[in-house]
Amino acid sequence: MKKRIFLLAAMLLLFGSFIVQNFSNKDDTITVAGGVTSESQILGNIVVELLQHATDKNIVYLNNLGSANLMHEAMVRGDLDVAPTRYTGTDLIGTLGLPTEKDPAKALKIVQKEFDQRFGFDWFPSYGFSNQFTFMVTQETAKEYGLEKVSDLKKCASKMRLGSDQTWYKREGDGYKGYTEAYDTKFQRVYPMQVGLLYDALVSEELDVILGYSTDGRVGSYDLVMLEDDLKFFPPYTASVVVSGETLKKYPELKPILLKLQDTIDTETMQRLNYESDNELLEPKIIARRFLEKHNFFEEGS
């Protein structure tokens, strides 16, 4: 028994030493978040790979943080330095509790100002794309009902099954209730489910319409029709990096490094990167490294 206790104590001491050396020394460590979606994991790895190349700091990747709220709370507590994937529409309404702003440039300026004043966080310029909520149908359904824009659904929605993200169905403002009021349209039935199941359910004709994401790789692989939000119901979901102000004070060199990602990823590029993850089953880290290599981020002086 004494030998077991001694062995356990030695293991705990060794493990504790590892934790202290690798995670507690904030002077040498920068923590970067990764989410649960392919997009957030790809962008997270792009930031990690870029910082590992351009700095001598210990970059710790905290993967699978499930929501913007979790990332935000972690950053407020000081447990997280960099959130690579934040969207203006999500944080404008959810985190800040402000009214919807439909103009992308104005929405970006609002979150940049408010995040600085309220939390001391630096909201960076956009990667160059906006991951919009988008109503989608198959090519066959679009032809059958003459669907090009969201308002076209009014003539046929009452006999259609809609699939959506679980949280969107209950969301205030830009959720299902707000949509039915803005477009004066209701579906026969709504099926809230995990986003990953939506596309297969649509193609297999278990659903007639889905509310997906404009940068999802399956949009192209399934040749889906994205309906134009002609009444501009959804706010812009422009994607950016957000960094703790305290982190930038400690490591001011991070700002010019991360600013290099501004306007480097448009919607088609993000769709392709997501496709490589979801359809070709490439690891996000590999996708991130290939992207950075292709765009010469690893060249001398980059």
Automatic annotation (TrEMBL):
InterPro entries xref list: ABC_Gly_betaine_transp_sub-bd
Location of the ABC-type glycine betaine transport system substrate-binding domain: 28-294
SUPFAM superfamilies in the cross-refs: Periplasmic binding protein-like II
Keyword tags: Signal
Signal peptide, first to last residue: 1-22
Organism field: Enterococcus hulanensis
Protein name, UniProt field: Osmoprotectant ABC transporter substrate-binding protein
